[in-house]
């Protein structure tokens, strides 16, 4: 408890907590649209694909500025989505393989570039490794502010375009018919995913950022059948895991933030799987048992009725 | 007395809450072509899949020639719906037909010259021997369906299950399938066919099962294919037209 | 000599992943490879902590167990109504996170380097050799992966028809009495084995790349399954060799370069494959149109 208070009294730690909370909300919100569009692993692919973009941005500029990384990652992300789309549209490669190909080849390229940077020994490369797993505690105040602002923009964009995204995820054909620019909206969802990934790079790392985009959304789906509620819940779950991960990581044991956040997220998911109403394991067992007994009862009454009918004849 | 090719007792299947099949009980007669018809979602495909153990049953017993299915696999042939597989799979028509022999080969034997000969013969029966080397993605829908039929023939079974073989096929294929069904019947085999086109029921089948969650009627076509039974199976979705009611049926 | 061992290791990894990868790609389970290659990490670490040795056998067992746990969890979630790709994402990130935390917690006791885990250090392969009766019989990694490859070739060879039917039409496979679930887990076991055998030397990402990229390349080049497997192994070996020299020139990660070369080969096949190449098809259509109009 003492740690907790101390943490809150440190302004830097407060900023970091706020930042990871916003990041969690942003990831959860945009992630639920990706999940509903059956593109849950897109976040995984995009976060891996961001690595070469970030490396190239670093090589060109020589500085560790999150703004430049954002641009680099966005370019790489757009290239990745285009590549996946091209393969699935123009060849017999199936979407899952296209995703895996883009993910591994882009990441391979990123590793090549990363090792180039390390071997060429340019001064401040050391921080670049942190991108793999994230270290929230090592962030400076300006990084946190940037992260918070990006996440806030992300959340704002989703709030503004909620109705459009909803229709796009549910029935893209109809959305086109109504006159929505579906291709543009599609790209926008991808771009927002990239933005979430980039925002999370320093805090969670590229490898595990995917979890923040997937797990809260899947957990939220267990609790509700309404999209609005699901998005809010997903954001809430993301925020909770962001706070928990950062707090444990910052309270002195020097564990990387990314995995801790992911585990917090997974714990929420576990609770949802077991306890959620209707879809949870417990609820399902009950429903199945009820169906069995109802079936037995119905066929029993049916039998009685026919017997009675025969007697009447 | 010889046991029936297929006996099902007390079979029920449920997805989630909703029962899809309830208290299915019937005994299929030997050497008949049996059509299974019913509205969408009546559980026609589910009945076949549950019989073959491809989906879990809530309860029920299935016996084939008097014994459980696991012991009679070689006597059963199965034609799944055409969309159930990926036709981009890297293989050719002959190879797909040879897959019908895998059940007879046991664990380690590989298909050899004998299997190839059987497969060619079956391809010939469906009029597809000219396409043996063709990659399967380059075949038309009807040709793909005929490949599936040839594969079922290669299984050399006594009891066949066919799931919607007439869907999306050209006239030539439809004719080929009908001819094949006739030939199977002549050899004394029993065939259950999930069907959707009421207009052709009388022409194609000897026996009919009207299914809608439960069995509405089961028996020879003359007795089961009546407006009353159809009305019960299809509910209000069926409109009967014309003077000769039984030949002009339209689904509305 | 060390060049030879490095290239050999890369080629063996590429061949074993290339073979099992074909079935993954055909069963539309490419991302399962990604999942398994990440989630074996906790298995390796736990095996290491329990046995206290870097003995490959323990690690192999630990990782294979975790690989199967991964697949089981993914299937269970999928069956309970979660989309399959989302269940993959949930499971592997969680297990990988556990692995990373274990490594960080026991970082003093383990000389498993986190970076190595991800992108491997194939360059160290030649220095970690085994000796039998005092004679050096070559790097440990080569033996490990060689054995894995042998196992894969034997099992896939013996049960080729079952694997094929399960990939093409699992319903029929089940109907004719092939134990579909058994072969599913056998395949997943082989994926785990090849992942684990390759893991320490080439890293998770090279494994994912080699599991998917060469099979996809081969998929574009041929219409026969047995040829597809052969081509896939060849493409993998080719990119291992070429990737090594590219890495030498660039002074960069060897395994990363191998994946990049494989990616380049895939791109070539995608555009120029005689049957399925995008450019070739366009060119054929254009010629056809010209002939029609002429």
From TrEMBL, chain A:
> Which UniProt keywords are listed?
Cell membrane, Membrane, Transmembrane, Transmembrane helix, Transport
Give its localization: Cell membrane
Q: Name one GO cellular component term.
A: ATP-binding cassette (ABC) transporter complex
Q: Report the CDD domains cross-referenced here.
A: TM_ABC_iron-siderophores_like
This protein's source sits in the domain of life called Bacteria
Q: Which residues cross the membrane?
A: 15-36, 66-85, 97-115, 144-162, 188-215, 227-248, 260-277
Q: Any keyword Transmembrane helix?
A: yes
> Which BP terms does GO give this entry?
cellular response to iron ion; response to zinc ion; transmembrane transport
**Which family does the record claim for this protein?**
Belongs to the ABC-3 integral membrane protein family.
> PANTHER family from the xrefs?
ABC-TRANSPORTER METAL-BINDING PROTEIN (PTHR30477), METAL TRANSPORT SYSTEM MEMBRANE PROTEIN CT_069-RELATED (PTHR30477:SF3)
Name of the protein this chain belongs to: Manganese transport system membrane protein MntC
TrEMBL record, chain B:
| Upper lineage | Bacteria, Bacillati, Bacillota, Bacilli, Bacillales
Report what the protein is called.
Metal ABC transporter ATP-binding protein
Which residue numbers delimit the ABC transporter domain?
Answer: 6-238
Membrane-crossing residue ranges in chain numbering: none
Organism field = Cohnella xylanilytica
Pfam families assigned: ABC_tran (PF00005)
Instruction: Print the keywords alphabetically.
Output: ATP-binding, Nucleotide-binding, Transport
Similarity field: Belongs to the ABC transporter superfamily.
**GO molecular-function term, one example from the UniProt record:** ATP hydrolysis activity
Q: Which SMART domains match?
A: AAA
Automatic annotation (TrEMBL), chain C:
Q: Which GO terms describe its cellular component?
A: ATP-binding cassette (ABC) transporter complex
Under the heading CDD domains, the entry gives: TM_ABC_iron-siderophores_like (cd06550)
Which UniProt keywords are given for this protein, alphabetically ordered?
Cell membrane, Membrane, Transmembrane, Transmembrane helix, Transport
One Pfam family of this chain: ABC-3
The protein's matches in InterPro entries, at most eight in alphabetical order, are given as: ABC_BtuC-like, ABC_TroCD
GO BP annotations of the record are: response to zinc ion; transmembrane transport
> How is the protein disposed in the membrane?
Multi-pass membrane protein
Enumerate the transmembrane spans.
Answer: 6-26, 31-50, 56-74, 86-106, 141-160, 172-196, 202-221, 228-247, 253-272
UniProt superkingdom: Bacteria
Location in the cell reads: Cell membrane
Q: Which family does it belong to?
A: Belongs to the ABC-3 integral membrane protein family.
**PANTHER family from the xrefs?**
ABC-TRANSPORTER METAL-BINDING PROTEIN, METAL TRANSPORT SYSTEM MEMBRANE PROTEIN CT_070-RELATED
Put simply, this protein is called Metal ABC transporter permease
Q: Which organism is it from?
A: Cohnella xylanilytica
Q: Read off the lineage from the record.
A: Bacteria, Bacillati, Bacillota, Bacilli, Bacillales
